Each structure stands twice: as structure tokens, then as C-alpha cells.
Amino acid sequence: VYDYEDDNEDLFGDAPTAPAKAQIDFRAELNDDQYAAVTAPDGPAIVLAGAGSGKTRTLTYRVAYLLTQGALPEEILLLTFTNKASREMLNRVEHLTGVASHQFLGGTFHHVGGQVLRSFGDVVGLPRNYTILDDSDSDALLGEIIRESDPDFLKKKDNPKPKPLKNLISFARNVMRPVEEAARARYPSNRDVVEQIEFFAEEYRVTKLRRGLTDYDDLLELWLKVLESNDEAATYYQNRFRHILVDEYQDVNVLQASIVDKIAANHQIMAVGDDAQCIYTWRGADLDQILDFPKRHPNTTIYKIETNYRSSPQILKLANDILESRSIDRSYTKILKPSRPNENLPVFVPAMDSYQQADYVLNRIDRLIDRGVRYSEIAILYRAHFHAMDIQMELSRRGTPFVITSGIRFFEQAHVKDLVSQLRFIVNPKDLPAFHRFACLLPKIGEKTAS
């Protein structure tokens, strides 16, 4: 998410040259569903790719196919939900076609938004040397604004702290609703708090702009503002990108969908997703964006990729039975088809509490080990870190070896932030959170003196 600038990404460089056409046997390397989506004619399209159906392969080969049809890499925009996903896809394209991955503009919405604002940020009052606040820095800035505006606000136990308050503001921005409306829904009986939240949100916005700072939401919000307020920028991107590919479209929010629709005004878009996998509604993901896609992009063709390469027939039957109960437009229904042999039935275990759940999981692991299964062949998946606490405690108590594969992101580690704060301040001397962070590292300098 921090990989916003790339010296190899030249938005306004030399005239593009056509890549050499690769010899790829698309028919032999794809199944029927994948082949239909990969070789789809120009025009708006939705690819409904079920879980484990080779969605990444389909997107990768779609990019390769466009190149073989004469498209230039500079004319293709690939929007994903992680930079890692984008890099993996474009690296595969490079392997397939020989076209260097840096010739494409691809990455997360935030990454591409950051690129756009480096070129057109002045349209919305943002200097080109703006710096980007991570989550903890933006929380701290909002806390600073609250304390300066109303020193007693955070002392009242019923009032929200900076982090949940910023999450509320962020949610409102991503669903493109007034902050006041979101605050009123959260605190319906406290008009004073609603008005204060609205004031804090506006002060937060103005302060960031004055100091040349953005948070992650600004990268989207200001990107859309550039496209809506500057015809030159909108026309440039609409004409530049003849092919727009969007991954995980079921998880886009209203703000992201509005950006895509603005760039894809000529309807040169393929959205890839699965309406049955929308799990981020709590942060603004809007399933209606994929369901209403054909209304916003007339003559949309819907492709379905239904062969599953990941799960056993028994698991797929359970999934299909659950999906069948949904009330949804029949054009979106799909039946996942197995490609793997039969295995054991999936087991559903109701647990009274997290302790009983942990006990069951550990007993199950013990039985697997007794049967000769190696620890390295066992994985425990969970939806949130707090769900894993009891399991981790029980693993430790029993002396079971385990490794946690997730944790603090690289750029969120304290020592990395200490160094990056100095670089941020060099680039943007108005970046006060960066100054405050490294000033506190100096001898005999504390929070008060740094402030």
C-alpha cells in the first residue's frame, strides 16, 4: 500500500511502441469458461469467478490476450486490492509475453490514485510533494485536532476515541455520505456529539490539505474530485486506458466504483469478482455495485467461471446448497463444479465458547499427528486476530509448535517508521506528525518539547 511511486511508471513519457506478439495457445491453456472470458470482445463485461476457479489465471491471460490483439501495455489499467496481487499478475504476463511489467499501470486503487495526484493534485489544492499518513499517524493527527478544539471531549467516557472516530469518518467518505449522517446513525440520541464529530472531520480535512498531507481515503476522494472537476484529467485517462480490468469487484465501495465508472466512461471495462464473496460490507463494500453494473454499463456481457480447482466435491456441494438459498438475479447464479476427487465430508462443529472451540481444534490436531500427519501440513484459519488468542494459548500450553504467518506490516514497525518519518519530513517540511515522531527520538526531547 506504500508503493505509490515507481520511477519506471512514466505517465507522460515517450510515445508507446507496440510489443512483440507472443505465441500463446490460449485454447490449450484455459478451460472453456476461462477461454470465453479471456477472449471476450471489447465492451463492458463482468466475469463471475467462483472461489478457486482460477480467477488470477483468467486475469493474467486476459492481459496477455489483449497484448496479442495489438493493445499497448500503456493502454491497460489493472486495479487490484493488493499491490502484491498486481505484481504477481503482471510478472506472469511478463513471463508469458516478454512485455516488461513496469510498462503497465497497475496496483491498488490507492496506489493508482497516488500516481494520479502526483500529476494532477494541484487541481484540488494538493502539492506534488504531499506525504501520506499511515493509519496510526492519521489517528494521532485527528487526536491532536480534537484536543486542540475541545480538551474535554476525550475525557468523557461515552465519547469516541480518535481511532473509532476516524473509522466512522472513513466509512462515511467511502460510502459517499455526509459525516453527519454516519455520526447520527451511530449516536442517534446525542446531537452535541454528532455536531462535534462533524466539526472535527472538517478540521481534519482542512489541516491535512494545509500541511500537504493525505490519508488513504484522500487518495480515492481527491482522485475522484480531480476527475470530476478537471476535464483535461478525465479526458486524458478515459482516452489513455482502452482496457480497464478490476479485480475483486464485489469488494468495491461506492467511492471506488464511482472512480472506475468515471475512467471507464467509454465502457471499456472488465470487472472480475464473485457476488458470493462480499465480506467487507463493514468497511463500505457495496454488493449493489456488482449487481447494478449492467445498468451503469449498458450491453454488459456476463461470463461465469464455475470449475473449482481448490475444494473437494463434498465442500462444493455444501457451498452450492448455501448459495442456492439466496434471492438474487438468476443471471448471477452459478454452480461450482469440482475437479478434485471425492474426500471426507466437511465437519461443522458448534462450540459453546472460544475455549471449547480451541479444545476441539487442539484435540483434532493431536489425532492428525497420531495418524502421521506433519505439523507443517496443518493450518488454522481465522477471521480476525482476536479469534485466535485462545487457540494460541492452548497451543502454547500443550507445547504444540506453531508459527503465526501474519503480524505487523513492514512499514508499520516502529523502527521503520522512525526512519521513514525523517524521509517524509525532508520531502514535506509541513509534515508535523513526521517531525514529532523523530524529534522524540532525540536526547532530552519528550512529547511536550517536540510539540
TrEMBL record:
A family per Pfam: UvrD_C
Fetch the CDD domains from UniProt.
DEXQc_UvrD (cd17932)
Among its keywords, does the record have Ion transport? no
Q: What is its EC number?
A: 5.6.2.4
Alphabetical list of InterPro entries matching this protein: DExx_box_DNA_helicase_dom_sf, DNA_helicase_UvrD-like_C, DNA_helicase_UvrD/REP, P-loop_NTPase, UvrD-like_ATP-bd
Q: Which GO terms describe its biological process?
A: recombinational repair
Outline the extent of the UvrD-like helicase C-terminal domain: 313-451
Q: Which residues form a coiled coil?
A: none
Which UniProt key words apply to this protein? ATP-binding, Helicase, Hydrolase, Isomerase, Nucleotide-binding
A GO cellular component annotation here is: cytosol
The terms under GO molecular function for this entry are: 3'-5' DNA helicase activity; ATP binding; DNA binding; hydrolase activity
Q: Does the keyword ATP-binding apply?
A: yes
Where in the numbering of this chain does the UvrD-like helicase ATP-binding domain appear?
28-312
UniProt similarity note: Belongs to the helicase family. UvrD subfamily.
Protein name per Swiss-Prot or TrEMBL:
DNA 3'-5' helicase
